[in-house]
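Supplementary Methods, section 5.1.

A reviewer requested that the exact input to the structure prediction be made available. We therefore reproduce it here, unchanged from the version used in the analyses.
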Amino acid sequence: MIIPTDGTVLVLGAGIFGLTAAIELRHRGYQVTMADPGPVPHPLAASNDVSRMVRMDYGADGFYTELCAKAIDGWHSWNRRWGKDLYHEDGFLLMSSVAMAAGSFEQDSYSLLTGQGLPLERLKPGQLTNKYPLWSTDYYIDGYFNPKAGWAEAAQTTAELKKDALATGVSIVTGFAAVRLLQNAGRVIGAVAADGKELHAEWVLVAAGVWTTVLVPELADRMWPVGQPIFYFKPSNLDDYKPPVFPPWGADIPRSGWYGFPANSEGVVKIANHGPGRRVGPDVARVTLREQEDHCREFIAQSLPSLATLPLEDSKLCLYCDTWDGDFWISRDPDRQGLVVSTGGSGHAFKFGPVLGKLAADALEGIENPYSERFAWRPLGEIRNESIRYTEA
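The structure derived from this sequence is encoded token-by-token as follows.
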């Protein structure tokens, strides 16, 4: 049943899940308060970084391919509305050190996308040297380029969404570090902060990322924080690190986890790893380990030797809120009225920003859509798509 649109909603968390949900719910007529420890963008939030990948390449999983196609349309709409290009459609270069074969992430992605009519460019022998000269052609022997993909300026996107939220009438409360949900007669009615301050609403939507299980501890067996390393370099020859010769890329993703981006407006090249990561607490220091930097330098010495001798410009530990199966968690609590959870990005949610708000608002209103079942409140069970585990942020 859809609740009356004069209801009140408290959104906990002002990252990509929370901001888009707050804006969509406000458009649907709700009175929305969004609370966050602040500032927004929060320096420790997964939504706050220089870049995030946007691509439909998901192996044989047409589910996320279809959803990302809608999201890419949304990114273009955001660019038009904001009057600036925060989504850059520079394409996506996917390289493989082994021949692409049926059943592999690379081949399955290529087959699905070309089957849908996308004009992917299969790499031919020697083409890597000619078109993408920074890469080690002795190691990467196969792959393709997807022109319908790119990257988004994450922190700037979050800042624009904050402006949109305020413009639509969302009330944003910063300095509110939620530590516990408030309940009355089996219904969630608000939250209390570390300083004892309380906020109340008819509905509470938890979009707290890695802090979600602080507020909903019963989900701790199905989602948890995982730290993944990010490294930043600042080469002097910037034109060599810009599209089209250096587009967003993934290098042997199923086997290595490495992916990265072209130089941004500040001349920074970002390289990151989406591997097993390490489980951590949500408030862990966002610093990388020496062995993680060593691992990165081994990769670039083999694959991008032009970066091998550069000092690090910066590095950090990015925290994913990983679900056990890699799918998002956008659903009502089946046992408590008034509670919706929208989180579980698992390192690949930001690209879906333009569609996440509608999914969260539908969940609150009890509206079924083609994605509801996949993102439902669910017990541990079968993993539907192993390739999610090696897709990137």
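Residues 1-5 have pLDDT under 50 and may be disordered. These observations are discussed further in the main text.
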